[in-house]
Structure to design on (513 residues):
């Protein structure tokens, strides 16, 4: 009888244990099971890959680097503005350029979460919680000490420095994640400052207008940033706070495909293609983001060299049409923005455009060209079609400059400037798919397929990606050429990281940038 009771007791205990196990989320990175909240995991689970020992996190350490992250390489345009910033005297810290870069003694740690980009699409597929989890993991990387040497490395390194301040060099991450990061930081008992780009961009665009001036402010950003209404809300709020009395209207354009083309996301841009493909995600003749055949003359697409993919030899006869070039994406979205303004029958003029995605400054010249074409475009009646709705000189506002200003002011206020540091000690990391995680799905190019990338759920605490140093193994020659041409100061820092930092000693010379 006693033996039977022991058996029943054991069965009950086993049942309770199994129930408890089902309440947990399984970690697939080789660690013990943890709570399914990434924030709780980072703070509380000492066995987790993501854990940070916050009670011993260095405070007010001037020697620490500045952390910067984006969904891809676009945030390097923000770093460019920070690196080039010279608006103050380095000795007295008073306003006025002294010919010495203001952040010359600071080092930076940059992260491009390329594997999980574009961030702008997560809201459209109702995966904002997953996006926030990515953003918290970006923050964890900058504050933590772990990284991998390369995609094949199975053992992480632990000699990365933590950071003293974090710049979110991504508009979508700022819109959806800044407050979430700040809550996480507060819960962890940390006082790390988080600086985003949206407030900076709005202050920059309002500075181009008189207090009583009427005008339209255009916002070109990712679909996610536009959907968040982050810029629109901030413009209207700051307009009231700063007492702008003019009639200011906001027109936003979600630039599906622009950032993705800059980062060479193959769902939107693949230079090796000669004809349309099934997995294309950009504007088309039949998609919700529709290419309007009646506007072909206005789009003025470049069809040469497969920059547009058509299922026939004649563009006018296409039944399938796909954009396959960064400039053509710009053409589509700038024309769409002006068409929306024209059809609104507003009496206002477009005076400025906020480049509400860090990738867009790479295409600044292309945007200017299209705006100039539209200003001078005449319809079949010989009349200018858009001049009534646009100023001749439309200001293109890059939030990066104001972000640099806010960073400077914070470091100065808190006396956190590094006196003995060197900007050449900056480090650059990029996320790649974690092929050692058996749950991940990877395509022939070693990337996450679209359906897997946006099909995952938040709360499954695992290592989807590995953060590894920049190299020619994970950044294409075309992108490197763009960086070298358009942001040479940052490109030189990347080269310096690849050539002299011990964290990349494993690289062959041919793989160094």
């Amino acid at each position: 009888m006693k033996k039977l009771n022991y058996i029943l007791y054991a069965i009950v205990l086993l049942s309770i244990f199994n129930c408890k196990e089902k309440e947990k989320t399984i970690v697939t990175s080789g660690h013990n099971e943890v709570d399914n909240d990434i924030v709780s995991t980072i703070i509380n689970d000492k066995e987790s890959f993501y854990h940070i020992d916050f009670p011993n996190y260095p405070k007010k350490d001037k020697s620490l680097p500045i952390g910067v992250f984006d969904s891809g390489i676009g945030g390097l345009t923000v770093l460019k503005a920070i690196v080039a910033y010279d608006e103050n005297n380095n000795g007295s810290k008073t306003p006025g350029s002294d010919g010495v870069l203001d952040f010359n003694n600071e080092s930076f740690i940059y992260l491009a979460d390329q594997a999980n980009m574009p961030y702008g699409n997560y809201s459209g597929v109702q995966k904002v919680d997953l996006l926030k989890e990515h953003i918290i993991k970006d923050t964890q990387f900058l504050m933590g000490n772990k990284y991998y040497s390369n995609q094949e490395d199975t053992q992480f390194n632990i000699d990365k420095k933590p950071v003293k301040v974090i710049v979110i060099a991504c508009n979508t991450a700022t819109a959806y994640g800044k407050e979430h990061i700040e809550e996480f930081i507060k819960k962890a008992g940390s006082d790390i400052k988080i600086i985003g780009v949206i407030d900076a961009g709005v202050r920059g665009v309002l500075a181009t207008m008189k207090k009583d001036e009427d005008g339209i402010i255009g916002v070109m950003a990712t679909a996610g940033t536009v959907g968040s209404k982050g810029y629109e809300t901030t413009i209207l709020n700051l307009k009231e706070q700063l007492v702008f009395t003019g009639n200011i209207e906001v027109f936003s354009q979600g630039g599906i495909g622009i950032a993705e083309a800059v980062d060479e996301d193959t769902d939107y841009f693949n230079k090796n293609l000669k004809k349309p493909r099934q997995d294309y995600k950009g504007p088309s003749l039949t998609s919700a983001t529709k290419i309007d055949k009646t506007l072909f003359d206005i789009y003025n697409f470049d069809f040469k060299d497969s920059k547009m993919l058509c299922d026939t030899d004649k563009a006018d006869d296409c039944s399938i049409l796909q954009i396959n070039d960064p400039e053509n994406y710009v053409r589509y979205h700038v024309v769409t923005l002006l068409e929306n303004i024209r059809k609104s029958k507003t009496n206002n003029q477009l005076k400025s455009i906020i480049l509400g995605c860090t990738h867009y400054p790479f295409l600044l010249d292309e945007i200017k060209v299209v705006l100039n074409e539209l200003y001078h475009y005449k319809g079949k009646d010989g009349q200018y079609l858009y001049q009534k709705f646009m100023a001749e000189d439309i200001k293109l506002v890059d939030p990066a400059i104001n972000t640099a200003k806010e960073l400077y002011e914070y470091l100065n206020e808190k006396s956190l400037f590094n006196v003995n540091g060197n900007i050449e000690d900056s480090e650059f990391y990029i996320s790649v798919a974690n092929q050692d995680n058996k749950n991940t799905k990877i395509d022939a190019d070693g990337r996450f397929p679209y359906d897997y990338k946006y099909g995952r759920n938040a709360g499954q605490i695992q290592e989807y990606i590995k953060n590894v140093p920049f190299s020619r193994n994970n950044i294409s020659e075309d992108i490197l050429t763009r960086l070298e041409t358009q942001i040479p100061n940052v490109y030189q820092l990347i080269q310096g990281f690849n050539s002299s930092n011990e964290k990349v000693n494993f690289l062959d010379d041919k793989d160094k940038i």
Observations:
- The chain has 16 helices and twelve strands.
- Confidence is low (pLDDT under 50) at residues 1-36.
